[in-house]
Amino acid sequence: xxxxxxxxxxxxxxxxxxxxxxxxxEILQLPVQALQERIEREMNENPLLEQQDSDPxxxxxxxxxxxxxxxxRAETEKELVVDNDHDxxxxxxxxxxxxxxxxxxxxDSFRRSANRIQDDADRRHDLMAxxxxxxxxxxxxxxxxxxxxxxxxxxxxxxxxxxxxxDARDGGYLRxxxxxxxxxxxxxxxxxxxxxxxxxxxxxxxxxxxxxDLRECLxxxxxxxxxxxxxxxxxxxxxxxxxxxxxxxxxxxxxxxxIETIQTARDAMHKLNPKPGNAFTKTYVPTVTPDVIxxxxxxxxxxxxxxxxxxxxxxxxxxxxxxxxxxxxxNEEREFIKKKINGAQWLIDSIEQRRSTLTKVAQxxxxxxxxxxxxxxxxxxxxxxxxIADRVGVHVTTxxxxxxxxxxxTPRGILPMKRxxxxxxxxxxxxxxxxxxxxxxxxxxxxxxDKSSPHSDEDLVEELNKVGMTVARRTVTxxxxxxxxxSSRQRRDWSLVKKx
Length: 500
What we know:
Shape: flat
Largest sheet: 4 strands, mixed
Number of strands: 8
Strand order of the largest sheet: 3-2-5-6
Number of helices: 23
Helix content: 40-55%
Radius of gyration: 34 Å
């Protein structure tokens, strides 16, 4: 086998994505709040970017007493903003091809306007003023209670160690054996101190804290004055699994309690808290800001508008435009301005492209799902992203980016745009039916079933077939579980079985 080294020229076709295209896709995918943050970051990094005043009627600090503006930015610089019909190519090329025979010194520090500096200061002040105070943690809450108790120092130290292991996200359970909290050579007395400390911690609020399992957590919450206290204690101690599986006759045989007594006790147990530590976990509820607003016009048609009033309209700073034409500008300054103009124009183009694409995609979605907006969720129709892509004339990945993490304000409420894309099946008559429609029908059948003899999954398949919805049993089982609906055995009301 002969091996040699040499140069070999080959022609290959390689697909590359231009940086401008990458930026456009990134901007398209951003929801309105993230877009605001992106624009603010770009404005901090690019001194050539300026934004139009949100209120054109507001007085400007550069206005003279007669109301005549000393700054003509509104007339000269808005021309560089790209709209749907013009790309201002001539203005852009004119700036890039200016004469470069200039001195060679340049200070590239950002020249921020007084308004920009004041706006940044106001934002920082608002951020500090509106910052949330750190909520009290479960451990701090328990330690504060412990500090008010008059107990032995050794017991208190062990109680503090137990509290340090509790996690509010886990419900406040003690998952570590007491032996693991003691030295390897601990004595019997040390173990007794640990047990006493655990009893102290379990006496604190919230009731049920530091339990080692669900059974102990519920038992800790039982109070002697509670109705059916003894019955609940028996059920919790010996029959939790039977209750979870709705095995009422088995519990009746083992305890001698009537079905009515067992169900009443079970209902009372539902008022107990299986995860008492969860009250100290902060649930994050994101603020939903709609990107698209859907409204009906006088003719009853749905029209789409973008809710982007908070997105600043950008233009290129007059100062740097003037600087580019100033004979005193240096070569370095000129190159810097050209580079920043390029980045600024790319950003402006990307934002305008986002507006155009998002509007077209949203309008196509609304037109396809008009029955859903008119009649409600039961009228939603199957829809794939490829259908919208074909309708708008873009790639399916563009549709995916356009709807990703974005919300639409409709007469039916604020909904994620992905909510309108659903799969489906066909009825016996060949009509398309969305899976959401099938789920609603499934819920309706279960709500109306005889609770003494609930529908099995096979029964539900037959009932759906009667209304023309052909669905496999495994599909019914999958959706029933996703909807949080128990099995037919767990749904059975045994008190009705006895009466029938």
